[in-house]
Structures are given as structure tokens and as C-alpha cells.
Hints:
Layout: H1 4-21, H2 24-35, H3 39-60, H4 64-67, H5 69-89, H6 95-121, H7 125-156, H8 162-178, H9 185-188, H10 196-202, H11 206-237, H12 241-247, H13 250-265, H14 271-292, H15 296-299, H16 308-315, H17 317-321, H18 324-334, H19 341-369, H20 372-375, H21 380-398
Amino acid sequence: MKSLGIRVxxxxxxxVFAILLNTVGIVIxxxxxxxxxxxxxxxxxxxxxxxxxxxxxxxxxSYIPKLGYKRSMLGGLFAVSLISxxxxxxxxxxITPLLYIVTGASFAFIKVSVYSTVGLIxxxxxxxxxxxxxxxxxxxxxSLVGPIIFSFMIGFSKWTDTYWIIAILTSLALLLMFFTxxxxxxxxxxxxxxxxxxxxxxxxxxAVWLFVICAFLYVMIExxxxxxxxxxxxxxxxxxxxxxxxxxxxxxxxxxxSRLLAGYYSKYIxxxxxxxxxxxxxxxxxxxxxFITSDYQLTQSTMSNNFTPLAIxxxxxxxxxGPIYPxxxxxxxxxxxxxxxxxxxxLIVVFSALGGTSGSLIIGFLSQNYSVHTAFYFPLIxxxxxxxxxxxxxxxxxxxxxxxxx
Length: 406
């Protein structure tokens, strides 16, 4: 199968949804100002997005092979194009929860279909891992571009007009996907095997359990840092809110860069070696910064722009953790029967969401009851655990073949 067209289509799909999913904070601020809703009501928009992704992924993922990966992606893109037009036209708060319900549900279809399609168009483990890293790198680029688009539109028009641009982008992605050939013949004969029980049966395998724990730990690390790094830089380095907001772009930017680079070197370096090196780098950066700032309460009044380099360095933790997630996901997906990869992706989405929520809550609890400095020792624990678990994870997945995860 000539896969260049479908690869580009998958990149565009992920890029567009990255813009939608990573601008919730901007939208929350806008609906508070424009629609005069309280902060709790506005903050619930994040929950509408996350819960719709989790629920749809769990209950629908196993049935997507029956519907077809291409049809599922077309449906998700069409739904988002339509709701984006509605948001641009209808200026009421009630449309924003609907926006994120539709976006979350559509992303569930997109992510399951995209991850499963990767297995159809790659021919080896290294090629699969390489493509997954590039794909997730493109997602991070979308995360960076989204706020820029919103900032431009807010400055020159109104924020709801941004959704005209999103509607155009999703429509272009839909047309690209429509005219792209995707051969799903290799799964058609086995689609009757797929149902919600097939997803649960995957959990019979110890390798799958070990994987979901690794995925849980990784997202716990990434999201806890992403959520609380601005607070850390503000309180520890005495930076202004505008400085912390501006510097935060280094975090997703470094993740994107590392994943794009991993898309190249993963073809030549064994995945376990590279992941251990990267995790060690993340551990060293966080531990070193915490050691240097251990007496921050005594010296906080003197911390100013002289400490900005340290604030940037800790943001580059993203460079070292970036390739971990797409790599461990690639390993288990490539060892799973093609028709069951949608079910596996459902598990990936659910446990990843749980990990992200847990990490943010734990850091929040520790910073509330102790200090944000003390709270940042916590990510060292899942980093260490993840590094230790990669050894048995490699051992168990090496024993798996398509016939093993059924």
C-alpha cells in the first residue's frame, strides 16, 4: 500500500485536534468574560472534554473496526467541522459544553482509528515506533500553534471567529481523508471478534497490565509537570505571571522536538536503551533544580531574572520524557493482533486519562499542604518506577506475538 497520502492525512487529523484540545484554558477565560459565567461553571468545560473522550473510548473503541477506520475518522472530522461553525455563529455559553462533548467524542474516534491505522501502514516494530513518535510530535506542534491562532483572533476580531479557521482546517482534513485510499482488508475478516469483551480480555495478559501501568505513570509525569510548572516557576523563581505563561511554550515545544528526533533515531537505537537514557535525563534535571533551590524560602526575595535560565531548564524536562509515551504505546500495539488494536487503544485512552488526572491532583494536594517545591519531588517517584518497569515490560512484550494478545 502506498502510505504517503494516509500518513499525511493522519498528521493533519492529529494537528487539528491538538488545536481544539489544548486551548480549553483560553476558552474558559473567554466564556467567563463574555458570557458572565462563574469560574466553576467555566472550569467544567475541561470535564466535558475529558469524560466524553474516556466514555466513548471505553464503550466504542472495540466496535470501530466494524465501522471502519476511515469512516470513523471522516465522521469525527465532519462532526467537529459542524460544531465549529455553530460556535462561530451562536454566541451563547450553552454551545461551549456541546463543543467539548462533540470534540471529545470525535477525538475518541480519531485517536482509536489513527493508532489502529498505524499498524496497517507500517511493516516493522522500528517503523511503527518511528511513525508513532512523529505523529505525537505533530500533535505537540498543534498544541503550540493553537494558542497562537486564538491570540491573533482575539486581538484582531473575537475569539469565536477562531472556529471559522478551525472549521476550514477540519474540512480540509476531511477532504484529504476522503480522497485518501486506506486498505482495511487485513482486518475485515476478523471484525466479528471485536466487542467490549474483547477489550476486557486483553487485560488477561500480564504484558497488557504492565503496559497500562507504564502508560498511567508516564501521563502522570507529563500532566503533573504541564499543570504545575507555571506555579513552580512563579513561586520558586519569582517570575511574573506573563513570564511563566510565555516560558511554558518551551515545555510542549521540547516534547515535540524530542518526538520528531525520536522518529529518526528509533530506527537505529534499541528502544529500551533510549528510554532509560531519557528518563535518567529527566530525573537529573528535576533533582538538580530542586537541590539548587532547596533553600528557596530564605532566598526567594533575591530570585529574579538571574534564575530565569533555571526556569527554562526545568521546562526542558519535556525533551527527555517526550518519546516515552509513543514508544511504549508502539511496542504493545505492534504486538497486538491488528483487529484488536482499536480495543487496545481504548485501554490506552482510559488509563492515560486516569494518570493525567491523578498526577495533577497529587501535585495540587502536596503543594497545598506543604509547598510547591516539596510537591515537585513527587514526579521523581513515577520516573523511577517507570524506568524500573521498562525491563520486565521489554521481557514480556518480546514474548508476545500477534497470536498472544487475543
